[in-house]
Amino acid sequence: MASDAEAPKMIRRQFLRASALAPAVLAQPTRLFAAEYDLVIRGGRVLDAAERLDRVADVAIRDGRISAIRPNIAPSAAKEVLDATGKLVMPGLIDIHTHLADKLLPPATCLADGVTTLLDAGSRGSDNPDDLLAIAQSSPNRVRILLNIGHLGVLPEGELLDIENANVARTRQVIERNRQWIVGIKARLSRTVAGEHDLEAVRRARQVADPLKVPIMVHVGQSVSPLPEILALLRPGDIVTHLYSPPPHGILDDNGRVLPQVREARRRGILFDVGNGRSGHITWDVAERAMQQDFLPDTISSDMTAIGRTYQVFNLPNVMSKFMLLGMPVEQVIARVTANAARAIPEFKAYGSLRTGAVADVAVLDLKEGDFEFVDNADTKRTGHRKLFPYAVVVGGKRLQA
Questions:
Q1: Are 66 and 108 in contact (CB under 8 A)?
Q2: What confidence score (pLDDT) does residue 103 get?
Q3: Of the candidates 222, 228, 225, the residue with the CA atom closest to the CA atom of residue 201
Q4: What is the spatial distance between Cα 235 and Cα 231, in angstroms, rounded to a whole number?
């Protein structure tokens, strides 16, 4: 037994020991009841073509990745809850044809539309890639680049009318130095851009692409050479953009039938992309005729520019809505801007899905009913009765705040 003299010292030691333990005891309930997830998106129709998923469920996110998809996750399990009741929940949208070098179209603008991954399709060439590389490196969403085979990139007067503008050695060197950011080659082949050099432009792009094992995207429609001659130079994994371009030298023959060489190219592994754009790239007539013959796009892209934000294109969900007007079910449309688009570009293969462990890029869209006007590149208006609108977006597990 402690003496009367020792008692105050003992009490003091016990008090100090208890004081030291108190923070741990008080902190323990916080650890026990800490939120399991950073964010839960609740009650939406979850659509993921890569996982063959189409059902109402909750999507849980933790540490920047998809943690779980199942019904009825308790709101108390999350630090933040996003109510998506009545909305469509899908992987972040992937737009494989945009033009971001125009400072009036910052990538963040597209991010607000649900586009978490973008591909600039040839805005710059081997002589002037630096500003586009800086955009890609600083963007809040994922940006990669197709380098134009023309050394100055897109030129209003046509970058390939002088074929010596296509410098194989220089283009290859620039890609090799920036392989993290530059993932392929772009060649614009229309008459006003390449003239009679369209086939030679593809051959030179081929000389760059093959040693580096990167795809080529070719812009078709109104070319000097017939499309079958262009397709003969392409290899599996290459991409034809503007597939619904009006004649001459589009995917349809003079009787409005899909060319057999076009179907054969698809069987060989050539991909066909929309590239909506604003001039000579898509008409209702060509798209409708082709789709009636079961020639649907592999990917749907916007060909977005700053001017496109104000007319015809507007945003990727608007372009997606055009294909619902043309008869595609919404789940097929979504597949073409998620799973299909991810497969089209090797560097994007880890995205476009909500599988457990995937990077948590998520788009939530609102499918509204009503009367909505859509316009093709011939300024022909059609009225659709369903349209997709951006509602919310998560990139890398972080919700974009309005």
A1: no
A2: 81
A3: 225
A4: 8
Helix, strand, coil % in the chain, rounded to nearest 5: 35, 30, 40
Looking at the predicted structure, is the pLDDT value of residue 270 above 60? yes
User: What tokens were used for 170?
Assistant: 């220089």
String of b and e for 88-112 (b: at least 16 CB within 10 Å)?
A: bbbbbbbbbbbbbbeeebebebbbe
- Give the length of the chain: 402
Binning pLDDT at 50, 70 and 90, where does residue 401 land? Answer: confident
Provide long-range contacts, Cβ within 8 A and 24+ apart, for 307-315: 307/278, 308/276, 308/277, 308/278, 309/105, 309/109, 311/278, 311/375, 312/276, 312/277, 312/278, 312/375, 312/376, 312/377, 313/276, 313/277, 313/278, 315/110, 315/113, 315/390
The CATH number of 91-352 is 3.20.20.140
**Alpha-carbon distance 290 to 300, whole Å?**
15
Name the amino acid, one letter, at 378.
A
Distance (Å, whole) CA 347 – CA 341: 11
CB 94 within 8 A of CB 341: yes
Domain spans, the chain: 91-352
Give me the pLDDT at residue 105, please: 92
What is the per-residue pLDDT across 61-96, written as a single tens digit (0 to 9) for each?
A: 999 999 999 999 999 999 999 999 999 999 999 999
Taking the CA atoms of 261, 266, 269 and 272 in sequence, report the sign of the dihedral they define.
positive
DSSP string of 116-140? EEEEEESS--TTS-HHHHHHHHH-S
